[in-house]
Structures are given as structure tokens and as C-alpha cells.
Design brief:
The chain is an alpha/beta fold. The chain has two domains: 112 residues, Nucleotidyltransferase, domain 5 (2-Layer Sandwich); 128 residues, ATPase, nucleotide binding domain (Nucleotidyltransferase, domain 5, 2-Layer Sandwich), CATH 3.30.420. It has twelve helices and ten strands. Strands 3-2-1-4-5 form a five-stranded mixed sheet. A hairpin with a 3-residue loop joins strand 6 and strand 7. Helix 4 packs across helix 5, helix 4 crosses helix 8 and helix 8 packs across helix 9. The radius of gyration is 21 Å and the shape is globular.
Length: 319
């Protein structure tokens, strides 16, 4: 069923939705890009909560945001960035549940929202939070990605991997198999443990990824205190994140011009020293152009959604 989206663009509203594994945030803006309302709902990742529940939470987030904005939930354009959208099959399963919410709907992986901070969504986005992924798009519309294979395979430079390496260094120090490091005492204090044996119960049988990722703060603190082990962990992570960017850049043939780069994820947004080290490493290898640090992907997506409106009013565009 097609809805009648009448009215002038000046009266239109647009939504950006960041659907993660634990929560969904929807932000609505007007045609001038001014935020008018936002709302939270539960997980939008169908791989975590199932298709029906994920679709329901995504719709709820939009409807609540529309209520906060005082506008109709039938919006002019929407960009849904949803965790777990990793294939055309994933897209085709979820899209029909979301398409009635706006005249124009774009559905992508949540990591792509960060690209919305770059002009025409052209360039490379690097996200490092609990996990890591790099992705990009060139002016010809070609798309490429690197990393993001999950914590068991390849998310180097992520909070989880920094935390995991901190644990490895700590237990090796406890055994005497590795050099002494501030990380051992830091982890024991952080988890209120009396001795290293208590680490086992914190990690097994199945530790929460976010719990391990939070140990990354201890790694950065120890590195700032000139702990050699922690400093090496951070430097390896910096090298790996830079490699993700250059890999995506090479795939998309960004050779002749400065590379537009958007950075997202809690580590790159909030750990300024980590971010600057990655940028320093990159600048030694390639010229950087437009640079954006994205701390509100849903707001970026809502503003980018304004550009999704088709030339002919009333048509629907799916990308």
C-alpha cells in the first residue's frame, strides 16, 4: 500500500535510525537538519532477537521519535542503519517491515551510518568500539569493507581485542611466563579480585564481550603510564586500524586524491590519544582529505536522509 506523502519539503521530516545489538536510537530532523525529536527502543538486530522483534523495535523507535517531534510517523525519508544487515538476503527480509514508514527508505548495515558524515557518502569510515570494521564507497558507487569478521576472527584494534590482549598479558605475568605489567593489578582492582585465579570466573564460560571491551580503558591508562606491555598492545592496535583504512582505500582506488575519512565508535570518538595516533600513522602513508569524527550516527543519518528525497515526489527509492 502506498501512502500519500503530500506537502512541501519545508514541512517534511526525516529520520535516522541506529539499530544496534542492544538498543535502537531514532532521531528526527526537519528539512533544515534541525533535530526535532529522538527516542530509544530495544535491539534492532534480527540475528539477536529475531526478525519480527527487530522490526517491531525499529518501528517503535521511529514512532516514539515522531511523537516527540510532534509529526506524523509517515516520514519523507528514512535511513535505517541496522546491525546484522550483512547481505542482500538480510536486507530483503527486513526492508518490507520498514518501507511503510517513509516515502524513501535506505536500509544498510549500522556501520555505514558513519559514512553519512562525508560529502556524498564518498570516502572511508573506520569504526572502533567493542568491535571494529572499515568500509567505504567511491564516487563511482563501488563499495568495499575490511575487518568486522567478529571477535573470534578479525576485529583488531577493537575494545574487545584490546581487553583480550590485556588479559593474556596479565595471566602471563601472573605465571611468570611474560613480563610484569601494570595490567595485572589494574584488572584485579577493576574486577575487585584478590588474586589472579579469580580472573577465570570473570572470563569463563562465556564472558560478555562488552565486559572484556571495557578493559581497553585500563590498557590506555597503563600505556600512558609508560607500561611497555600496554604500550605495545596499543601500538599494534593502531597499526591494525590504519591497515584497515589503507586496505579499503586501495580497494576503492583512492590513489590520486586526498582520502575523505570518517571515524566512529566509542574508542575513536572518546579516546583522543588513540584517535590521534591512528591519524598520525595514516598521514605518514596517504594524504587525508575531509575528516569527520562521528559521535551521533543516527543524527548524521537523519540529516543525510534529506538528500535521499527523489526528484519526482511520490516515488520510492530503495538502495
Amino acid at each position: 500500500m502506498m501512502h500519500d506523502f503530500s506537502g512541501h519539503l519545508a514541512d517534511a521530516y526525516f529520520v535516522g535510525v541506529d539499530g544496534g545489538g542492544s538498543k535502537t536510537l531514532a532521531v528526527i530532523v526537519d528539512a533544515q537538519g534541525r533535530e526535532r525529536g529522538r527516542a530509544l527502543a530495544g535491539s534492532g538486530n534480527h540475528a539477536v532477537v529475531g526478525l519480527e522483534q527487530a522490526a517491531s523495535q525499529l518501528r517503535v523507535a521511529v514512532e516514539r521519535a515522531a511523537q516527540a517531534a510532534g509529526c506524523s510517523p509517515l516520514l519523507r525519508a528514512a535511513w535505517f542503519g541496522v546491525a546484522g544487515i550483512d547481505s542482500l538476503h538480510d536486507h530483503d527480509q527486513l526492508f518490507p517491515h520498514l518501507s511503510p514508514l517513509a516515502e524513501t527508505v535506505l536500509l544498510t548495515n549500522d556501520a555505514e551510518l558513519v559514512l553519512g558524515a562525508l560529502d556524498n557518502r564518498v570516502g572511508v569510515a573506520l569504526i572502533a568500539g567493542t568491535g571494529t570494521i572499515g568500509l567505504g564507497r567511491n564516487a563511482e558507487g563501488d563499495f568495499a569493507r575490511a575487518s568486522g569478521w567478529g571477535h573470534l576472527l578479525s576485529e583488531e584494534g577493537s575494545g574487545y581485542e584490546l581487553g583480550r590482549q590485556a588479559l593474556v598479558a596479565a595471566v602471563r605475568a601472573a605465571d611468570g611466563r611474560g613480563p610484569q605489567t601494570l595490567l595485572l593489578d589494574s584488572i584485579l582492582e577493576h574486577w575487585h579480585l584478590r588474586d589472579p585465579a579469580g580472573i577465570l570466573a570473570q572470563v569463563y564460560p562465556a564472558a560478555d564481550k562488552a565486559k572484556i571491551a571495557r578493559l581497553s580503558a585500563l590498557v590506555f591508562a597503563a600505556a600512558q603510564a609508560d607500561d611497555i606491555v600496554a604500550s605495545r598492545i596499543v601500538q599494534r592496535a593502531v597499526n591494525e586500524l590504519a591497515l584497515v583504512v589503507t586496505t579499503v582505500s586501495d580497494k576503492l582506488h583512492f590513489f590520486a586524491q586526498p582520502l575523505p575519512l570518517a571515524l566512529g565508535g566509542s574508542l575513536l570518538v572518546h579516546e583522543a590519544d588513540y584517535r590521534e595516533r591512528v591519524l598520525h600513522h595514516l598521514r605518514a602513508r596517504l594524504p587525508l582529505g575531509q575528516l569527520a569524527v562521528v559521535d551521533q550516527p543516527a543524527l548524521i543519518a537523519a540529516r543525510a536522509a534529506i538528500q535521499l528525497v527523489p526528484v519526482e515526489k511520490g516515488s520510492r527509492k530503495e538502495t
